[in-house]
Structures are given as structure tokens and as C-alpha cells.
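fyi for ur records
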Amino acid sequence: MRPVTDETPLLDDLMPWSVAPLRLGRDWVAAPDARTLRTRWDTLVAAGGARREELFRPTRSRGQHSAVAALPGQRTGTVRFTREAGPCPEPVRVAYGPFDEQWLLPDHRLIDAARPELWRVADAHQLFAGEQGRVPLPQDRAEAAGPALLVTAALPDGRPAAGRPGRIRPLYRRPGGHEPNVTPGLPELLAARYGMPVSAADLLAWAGAAARPSPAGCAVPLPADPQVWAAGVALGRRLTDVQLRGARGGERPRLPGGRRPYVRAALPPHPDSLAYDAEGEALLVGGTGRIAPVPVEAWDFHVSGVRVLPLWFERRTAPAEPGTLEAIRPPVWPPEWTSELLELVTVLALLGGMAAERAALLAGREQPRLGRADLRAAGVLPPPAAARRPASVLELPEEGPEGQFALL
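which gave:
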């Protein structure tokens, strides 16, 4: 793999508007299933006095007396939470870390830093590119770094598997798929170089296939050869389709017949361990549960140096402090978690099966023709300051604290 240099463009050069990860402030506002969140809400609003304060877990950013506007697009209360006695808001699906879709209470009063600018542009047209935490690894474990960039249709919280959190970059700056989040002039420059149209989706697909971690952020080398560009975009689109899991009109990921994972032995009601039988290509869940076939590519899939499957399992089974809202969980392992685990195995196996293509793309002989100096000379860099700020978006009235209208 050719090393990243200071002249290699960064994703920050190509998709200039980015948002910091969400900071939830309290773990109980997210859960793998929506029923648990409703039970936690009901428990909280039914409590009184010191017990309610203890369950809420106030921080310097949020407490029961905080005056906060509603999140854009969400129908939640805006009275101070100390007076809240209503029903639970409808949980929403979010990307809770890499390859882990969970549910979140979309109530701004409960979240330390919810990043309203992301919620304003989250709709059926939007995609989010999430930079993954960079973890320095020894040379013999370089393959465990995993992808530097992941794409989701669900709003990501930006939680990394390890390392410093990266930035979240929406593909579009406005709802409805309008105003691509791309440096002005860049698509036209690339189209002239490659002799083919270049869209924002093409650029995101290329970045998804070619992005490399670096101390400065995601580095995205731009190739000289139009054929390399076209091959990388095609690979990136396949990688993205798998990650989206059928969202945005695509098909849900499936392995070829005979390689699809099934439950071969029922999972126990309270699984407390996850292991891999390499010889039998099987995932051993709780000692007695067995899922097979599970390709080694799925078990060995890493993000930021962390194996994905054990992390996903740990987030559902790690002990919680008794008496807290986090301790409210399903009494037994729900069937839907098994379905999600089977789909996750499928996703990781398909992505792992494309790892060789991605490695070949990154190891290509072509030197990047468009370095940062070339982009500066063409007048593309630096991006205008306005491109790094969120667009002024107010499609619908937004409710401010205590029921007032928010002004943008």
C-alpha cells in the first residue's frame, strides 16, 4: 500500500461540511430494541424526587431543569423534563457505532449534544459518511485497521469502535437530496480529467473504497487513470449497497445459497459468551447456541482494530449497574436479535469477500495525479468558508424551549 503523504487529499478537502459525533451523555437513551426504551421512559417519569434525579443521570450539559428546543423533525415535549409526565416519544433507528443499528429516544432534553444540524437534513434521500477512529497498529496487524469510512442511511452517532471519534459528513447539505456536500468545482474538475460525469454519489463511492486512515483524518487518493477511477467507484457502490442493508431502494444483502448462515442449535435465553469454531465455520453463542456457516471473513472483520462481532454481542450482554435505567433490558434474548445477528454475519462476510479487491485498489501502481497542490492550482482548494458551515434550513417550524417557535 502506497503511504499517505501530506499531498494526498483528505475527505475534509472533498466533502467540506462535517459535524462532530453525537454526545449522548447517558447510555440509557439508546438500546437494541424499542420496547426497552419505552419501559425505561415509563420507569423514569413514574419516579419522583431524588430517585428520578438519580435515574436521569444529569450532567453539566443536561439536567431535568434544562431548557431545550425539540430536535428537528421530532415530535417531543419541550417543557423542562422535571415536569414531563407524558408518553414515550417514538424511538428512531440510529447507527450506534460501526455495523450496530440500535434505537434512540430522539428527545433533545435527554441528549447532551444531539447535533440538530444533522437531524435537519436526515431524510429518505440522505446518506451519512462516518470517519472511523484511527488506531496505530503494528505492521503485522495492519489488516485489522478495517475500513476508514463507513456509509449509513440511519443517522450515525459517530461512536467509534476504538480511537478518537471521526467526523460525520452528510452527502447532501439540504433535505430532499439537494445541494451535494462536495467542494465547489471538484466534480467538474474530475469529470474533465476522467472524461465522464462525476456525481456526489460517485465521489462518496470512491471514498468508501479508497479512503485510508491517517493522523490528519481520512485520506482519499485520487487516481490518474480513468479506468482505476471507474473500477473504484463500482467497488465503492457495491460496498455501500451492502452497508445500507436494503435502505434507499436497494436489496437486503444475501450470501449465495449454501453459504447463508442459519441457527443450527437454538441460542440459550441468557447467552454470556461468543466464540468461533474455525474448523466448523460456526459461531458459538452462549456455549450451546450455534450459527453456521459463518465465513472466517465475517469473524475476522475489524474496525479500528476491534473485531466487530464480539463488540456487537458485548453491547447486548455486558452487565449493567443494578438499579439503573441501563439495567432495564429484555428478560431473555429476543428473537429479533438473532435475526439481526444473522444479517450482520451476512454483511461482514460480503464486505470481507471484497477485501482483496479493495487492497488491490489501494496498492495500485498509479500515483495520485490530483494532489492537494493540483486542487489548489485549479482553484478548487481551499473550499469556500460557507461550504464548511451548515446550510440555512428551515423546512418546517421547529419548537423551541417551553413550546416557543425556534428561529434560525
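The mean pLDDT is 92. thats all i got for now
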